[in-house]
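Assess this:
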Amino acid sequence: MNIIFYHPFFEAKQWLSGIESRLPSAKIRQWRRGDTQPADYALVWQPPHEMLARRVDLKGIFALGAGVDAILDQERRYPGTLPTGVPLVRLEDSGMSVQMQEYVVANVLRYFRRMDEYQLQQQQKMWQPLEPHQHDNFTVGILGAGVLGKSVAHKLAEFGFTVRCWSRTPKQIDGVTSFAGNEKLPAFLQGTQLLINLLPNTPETVGILNQSLFSQLNNRAYVINIARGAHLLERDLLAAMRAGKIAAATLDVFAEEPLPPMHPFWTHPRITITPHIAAITLPEAAMDQVVANIHAIEAGRVPAGLVDVVRGY
């Protein structure tokens, strides 16, 4: 079994030795430009077009993250990047669910207890108790009900929040109100006080966080974007905040990363920025999942995280 590996910033040595220890019979190498030698599996993140094109003998391509939008974007720009009929598999969880729960809980509680506003008051040496939010008027809405969305929804429900989810297709989540399909999006947005975006990045979801969507939320709503920067129309968010429709936002992902030094988000008093760290790939857990999926494919089973390339997730 031959495996090729490419990642623009992961240390290759850790992955090569980790996969070798889990699959002693496999030969794994770091892919470099010009490498056209045979391969059965490819482990990749943002691979160059020539790495995968024409490799019709691949049994599987593993994206080393929860999203596959970078690969699918390349396929749209350069048809043939993905060899026809070769399964594309993304990571499911591999330690990311807990990280997402931690990030979301920290920020939801920060807004719910108005700690962001008290921090601003501290800077002004202002001593002023604020009217606390109440659970019965602080509905949390989650866009996206995949593995990560469900995990976050369950954790927030444990804190007593009323939680609702919206997804493209119907999903059942215990203790959570579910909405599905474009026709149900307005009903999902109405009454939502804090919106969390965990949607996959597809042509249908690009720019979904826009003025029209913000206008349907509760007044003085909060927004947390931890999916992709392409989901957010940045000018629309700034306009909604100037108008007072959006009270504050926490953003972990951006249209351009790193965020340019002169970007207005840096100095906005009600926007919190983190550098795409809400949930990162944990190599050991990810390698366990990749190897388990290789065993599944070798045994003729469907791997966990198989991507529908038409839907984009």
Observations:
- DSSP finds ten helices and twelve strands in the chain.
